[in-house]
Write a structure and sequence with these properties.
The complex is a heterodimer. Chain A is built from 12 helices and 3 strands. Chain A has a single domain, classed as MetI-like (MetI-like fold, Orthogonal Bundle), CATH 1.10.3720. By secondary structure, chain A is mostly helical. In chain A, helix 2 packs across helix 12 and helix 11 packs antiparallel against helix 12. The model of chain A has no long low-confidence stretch (mean pLDDT 84). In chain A, strands 2-3 form a two-stranded antiparallel sheet. By secondary structure, chain B is mainly alpha-helical. Chain B contains 14 helices and 1 strand; from the N terminus they run H-H-H-H-E-H-H-H-H-H-H-H-H-H-H. Chain B folds into 2 domains: 46 residues, no CATH class; 208 residues, MetI-like fold (Orthogonal Bundle), CATH 1.10.3720.10. Chain B starts with 6 loop residues before the first helix and ends with a helix. In chain B, 75% of the residues lie in helices and 1% in strands. Classes of the chains: A mainly alpha, B mainly alpha. At the A-B interface, strand 1, helix 1, helix 3, helix 4 and helix 5 of A face helix 1, helix 4, strand 1, helix 5 and helix 6 of B. Strand 1 of chain A pairs parallel with strand 1 of chain B. Chain A: InterPro entries: MetI-like, MetI-like_sf, Sugar_ABC_transporter.
Chain lengths: 287, 266
């Protein structure tokens, strides 16, 4: 659409700008302020320069949390995106079952995050949870509160349960927007179902999948409530993701300086990686 | 191959329903049954857990509080996002692209980073522990989302609609309220749905910004979990009740949820 140049449009944007700026800039500046100061309590602060940033960037604790965070994010992306596409492809395109599928699949998205955590916490308990009991009866020695491997398995399974539906909904929206004529043409040409997927469905889903991957990336990097209710970062530190570690430092130990420096590094990592994702995935669109 | 394609969604839905079933079934069990034996369905159905929630104000007020701030947030986010989305979809102005991207970056801000500064900011201006505080805090990630979704819907409306209305003698406010808003009603529904959803499910900020008067249901639950020796049945009942508002909302917008993001631009 050709847009007209109109500087008065700023007035339309003003309310959004004021509200978001109030919420984003003041807290961000507070964080920046803490990140360059040292305090011993009683609201007395000293200039600390970039000491906290050096500490964060060289601390093995931060590296370990970041490593766990990256492992988590890329594992769930690698599972949820292909799985979501497969389910969307298998869903009916019309008829009464469409609504049933959509409503049931969207359910996990609307459950408060702490309830999701609590639900899986109970579901996985080896003595009284359906999942835990079943696995133990089948002969697996499963106990997510004791064994790091099991904790990771439960955490990943929970996130797949919670968010795959978002990918399904988006991929499905992309699929239903393909006109029937495309399929008819493919049929006349005798195209295999793989080439229909590769040359018709996948390109049409590219835009919605970009949104899905970006949203899942951002949200999984910010994930806090579900793992903190499910495992609390344990056993030991094995499932302590970035935000859990951050809250431990900021609210648990009240080390405001290091926590603030870590917050900023954390935010920059998300911004940078989102920007890379975005650029790579939309690179071919302008041509 | 096509004939058996229903198997995949069916298995997936069963997988989705199992933990929910376990939660619901546990909410009808007595504490003795939950801890004492492993039963696939409640042997002696009890409604005590639900009775506690509906008679104890600390419990049911949690739901009321959550619904109040979610409603304020949804109305506020959509109301300010409407004119902004219109500006982004119709006009070119100085810094429009940068502004749009900056708005989206707020969607990436981790709540854990902002929890403490938010607490200090809202205490300083004296709205700590009010519904407004939580509603305002949630606009940080809901306004960008609402602008993004609405902009997508509005770009789908041809510009001739605006021009015809002006020719017919409508003033801008009259056109916007009487013609434009009804045209993009579906988009407003979708945007409101996503605002509702993300405000309803968020806990960290909601918990940090409230103490007593506006405490959300989710915070009441976490407190119960830690203080009263794990009353699993009660917790399961409270959890079950948090699913219901979401389920109702989904039912109403089921035909639009998928479209909402698909039409938004990236």
């Amino acid at each position: 659409m050709n847009k007209t140049v109109n500087q008065k449009a700023w007035f339309f944007v003003l309310p959004v700008l004021v509200l978001v700026a109030f919420n984003a800039i003041v807290p961000l500046m507070t964080v920046v302020n803490y990140s360059v100061q040292e305090t011993f309590g009683d609201n007395i602060f000293f200039w600390a320069g970039i000491a906290w940033f050096e500490e964060v960037l060289t601390s093995s604790r931060f590296h370990a949390s970041l490593g766990r965070q990256l492992t988590f994010t890329f594992t769930i992306l690698a599972i949820e995106v292909p799985l979501g596409v497969i389910i969307a492809l298998a869903m009916p395109r019309k008829g009464p079952w469409v609504s049933v599928c959509l409503v049931l699949m969207a359910m996990p998205l609307l459950i408060p995050w702490n309830v999701v955590g609590a639900m899986w916490n109970i579901f996985g308990l080896p003595e009284i949870g359906l999942l835990g009991k079943t696995l133990n009866v089948m002969g697996f020695d499963y106990n997510y509160t004791r064994q790091p491997g099991d904790a990771w398995f439960t955490l990943i399974l929970m996130d797949v349960w919670h968010w795959t539906s978002l990918v399904v909904l988006l991929a499905y929206a992309g699929l239903v927007s393909i006109p029937d004529a495309y399929y008819q043409a493919a049929k006349i040409d005798g195209a295999s179902s793989w080439s229909i997927f590769r040359y018709i469905q996948l390109p049409k889903m590219k835009r919605v999948l970009t949104i899905a991957i970006l949203l899942r990336f951002m949200d999984s990097f910010n994930i806090y409530t579900e793992p903190s209710v499910l495992t609390g970062g344990g056993p030991g530190n094995s499932t302590t993701l970035l935000s859990i570690d951050l809250v431990k430092i900021a609210l648990g130990q009240f080390d405001l300086g290091p926590a603030a420096a870590m917050s900023l590094v954390y935010f920059l990592v998300i911004l940078l990686m989102s920007w890379i994702f975005y650029t790579v995935m939309t690179r071919n669109e302008d041509q | 191959m096509k004939r058996f394609s229903w198997v995949i969604p069916t298995i997936y839905i069963i997988f989705l329903m199992l933990p929910i079933y376990w939660l619901v079934s546990m909410s009808f069990k007595t504490t003795n049954e939950i801890l004492g034996s492993f039963t696939l369905w409640p042997q002696s159905v009890t409604l005590d857990n639900y009775r506690t929630i509906f008679t104890d104000p600390t419990w049911y007020m949690g739901y009321v509080n959550s619904i109040i701030y979610v409603t304020i947030n949804t109305v506020l986010s959509v109301a300010v996002a409407l004119p902004a989305a219109y500006a982004f979809s119709r006009y070119r102005f100085l810094g429009d692209k940068h502004l749009f991207f900056w708005l989206l970056t707020n969607r990436m801000a981790p709540a854990a980073v902002f929890a403490l500064p938010f607490f200090q900011l809202y205490s300083a201006i004296g709205i700590f522990d009010t519904h407004l505080a939580v509603a305002l805090a949630h606009t940080l990630f809901n306004i960008p989302l609402a602008v993004w979704i609405l902009e997508g819907f509005m770009s789908g409306v041809p510009k001739q609609l605006d021009e015809t209305a002006y020719v017919d003698g409508y003033s801008f406010p009259a056109f916007f309220v009487k013609i434009f808003i009804p045209t993009i009603a579906a988009g407003i529904g979708v945007a409101a749905f996503f605002c509702f959803m993300f405000s309803w499910v968020e806990l960290l900020l909601a918990k940090t910004l409230t103490a007593v008067a506006a405490k959300p249901i989710a915070a009441t639950m976490t407190k119960t979990a830690s203080s009263s020796g794990y009353e699993l049945g009660l917790l399961a009942a409270a959890g079950t009740l948090t699913i219901i508002p979401g389920a109702i909302v989904i039912y109403f917008v089921r035909n639009y949820i998928a479209k909402g993001f698909a039409l938004g631009r990236v």
